Amino acid sequence: MTRRTAVAALMGALCIAAIAETASAFTRREAICVRGARSRSKAAVQDARDKARTQLTTDLSACFGDGTNCVGGCLSEQAANQKGPNDAIKACQADICKKQNLTQTDACRDAADPVACVAQAQLTLFLCNQQCVAQQEAALIEANGVFNDCLQGCSNP
Fold first, then answer.
1. Which of 55, 98, 105, 111 is least buried, going by the fewest C-beta atoms within 10 A?
2. How far apart are CA 72 and CA 132, in angstroms?
3. CB neighbours of 125 closer than 8 A, spacing ≥ 6?
């Protein structure tokens, strides 16, 4: 029974491969459309983040009945404490990871398997970006701890 299922699955895959259209590159029009869609998506994500930050400020202020702007002060302090580590992450990703990725992908032009080469370069980029974040993890945890301590102060004016 298992052998029949395997044979049926193999035959189904072969049939699909036989009737499927061959892949082709984007047309210029499609590439422009994709780029526009990605840009709109990125803008929507940024807009959602901004709205979430504003809502968080409003909600936290309501939690503490904050008439003295204590919560706003805590949020400002948190942003200031996170700026250094976040800037270091961005610099690491741009100055090290992105440059390394450009070099690696440029070298893929001459590779025996350029698709596998680019895939490996993208994996390396991902791992490098993660390493940049990991290097700043302790500082970000500390900033969040200071923020939590500040919020506790808002509940005991």
1. 55
2. 29
3. 97, 98, 100, 101
